[in-house]
């Protein structure tokens, strides 16, 4: 079955171009041009991934992404005409998995979509990180009886660290392993998603024990309890 992609963008010409590219790659696109209608379109179409413009009429992309995240972990790639740091970070903090600055290369867009839709590397093991149990096969994280809800990307990030507890990962290594970047990219992606992950898995996000910072290098998994 072809993956369903919801395109939320009020630029008709761009949305049309994206639709042509997606169909040629075997995806099934649907469209929404108004931020105020985006959540309804999301619920109705039940997409496998959302391409979400930052600047929209009705509601902006940051608000739409926040609303989607409140009820779903569906991958979201933010489309932005601004490379402005504040807007990019706000988009990521609202729950976007990745972002692309317009104008973008259609092949690059497809590559990013395929990476986000790619299932995690099949692993049958159960891993321990801090007081968490990470069930790789079941895509589940638990602290005792409590199940912690992570987006697929947050799960992949935690799994990457937990799989190699002795290894310190640079941001570039995580970008390649989790996001599929094979070239120099924006390491803010990693920083923001580490913050989001910590907010969900740490007892005290300001004093992390699960996702540890190695100053000047990157991140590593905390020791199992």
UniProtKB/TrEMBL annotation:
<dbReference type="GO" id="GO:0005829">
    <property type="term" value="C:cytosol"/>
</dbReference>
<dbReference type="GO" id="GO:0000976">
    <property type="term" value="F:transcription cis-regulatory region binding"/>
</dbReference>
<dbReference type="GO" id="GO:0045893">
    <property type="term" value="P:positive regulation of DNA-templated transcription"/>
</dbReference>
<feature type="DNA-binding region" description="OmpR/PhoB-type">
    <location>
        <begin position="124"/>
        <end position="223"/>
    </location>
</feature>
<keyword id="KW-0597">Phosphoprotein</keyword>
<dbReference type="InterPro" id="IPR011006">
    <property type="entry name" value="CheY-like_superfamily"/>
</dbReference>
<dbReference type="InterPro" id="IPR047671">
    <property type="entry name" value="MtrAB_MtrA"/>
</dbReference>
<keyword id="KW-0238">DNA-binding</keyword>
<dbReference type="InterPro" id="IPR001789">
    <property type="entry name" value="Sig_transdc_resp-reg_receiver"/>
</dbReference>
<dbReference type="InterPro" id="IPR001867">
    <property type="entry name" value="OmpR/PhoB-type_DNA-bd"/>
</dbReference>
<feature type="domain" description="Response regulatory">
    <location>
        <begin position="4"/>
        <end position="117"/>
    </location>
</feature>
<keyword id="KW-0804">Transcription</keyword>
<feature type="modified residue" description="4-aspartylphosphate">
    <location>
        <position position="53"/>
    </location>
</feature>
<dbReference type="Pfam" id="PF00072">
    <property type="entry name" value="Response_reg"/>
</dbReference>
<dbReference type="Pfam" id="PF00486">
    <property type="entry name" value="Trans_reg_C"/>
</dbReference>
<protein>
    <recommendedName>
        <fullName>DNA-binding response regulator MtrA</fullName>
    </recommendedName>
</protein>
<feature type="domain" description="OmpR/PhoB-type">
    <location>
        <begin position="124"/>
        <end position="223"/>
    </location>
</feature>
<dbReference type="InterPro" id="IPR036388">
    <property type="entry name" value="WH-like_DNA-bd_sf"/>
</dbReference>
<dbReference type="InterPro" id="IPR016032">
    <property type="entry name" value="Sig_transdc_resp-reg_C-effctor"/>
</dbReference>
<dbReference type="GO" id="GO:0000156">
    <property type="term" value="F:phosphorelay response regulator activity"/>
</dbReference>
<keyword id="KW-0902">Two-component regulatory system</keyword>
<keyword id="KW-0805">Transcription regulation</keyword>
<dbReference type="InterPro" id="IPR047673">
    <property type="entry name" value="MtrA_REC"/>
</dbReference>
<dbReference type="InterPro" id="IPR039420">
    <property type="entry name" value="WalR-like"/>
</dbReference>
<dbReference type="GO" id="GO:0032993">
    <property type="term" value="C:protein-DNA complex"/>
</dbReference>
């Amino acid at each position: 079955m072809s993956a369903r992609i919801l395109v939320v963008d009020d630029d008709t010409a761009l949305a049309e171009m994206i639709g042509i590219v997606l169909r040629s790659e075997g995806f099934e696109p649907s469209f929404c041009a108004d931020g105020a209608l985006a959540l309804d379109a999301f619920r109705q179409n039940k997409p496998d991934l959302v391409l979400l413009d930052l600047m929209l009429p009705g509601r902006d992309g940051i608000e739409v992404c926040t609303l989607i995240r409140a009820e779903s972990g569906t991958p979201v790639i933010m489309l932005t005409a601004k490379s402005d740091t504040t807007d990019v970070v706000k988009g990521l903090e609202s729950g976007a998995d990745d972002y692309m600055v317009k104008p973008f290369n259609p092949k690059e867009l497809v590559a990013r979509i395929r990476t986000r839709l790619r299932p995690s590397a099949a692993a049958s093991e159960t891993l321990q990180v801090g007081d968490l149990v990470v069930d790789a096969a079941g895509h589940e994280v638990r602290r005792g009886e409590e199940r912690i809800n992570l987006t697929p990307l947050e799960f992949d990030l935690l799994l990457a660290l937990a799989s190699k507890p002795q290894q310190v990962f640079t941001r570039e290594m995580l970008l390649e392993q989790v996001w599929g970047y094979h070239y120099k990219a924006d390491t803010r992606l990693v920083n923001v998603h580490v913050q989001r992950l910590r907010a969900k898995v740490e007892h005290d996000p300001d004093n992390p024990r699960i996702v540890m910072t190695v100053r000047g290098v990157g991140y590593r998994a905390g020791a199992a309890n």
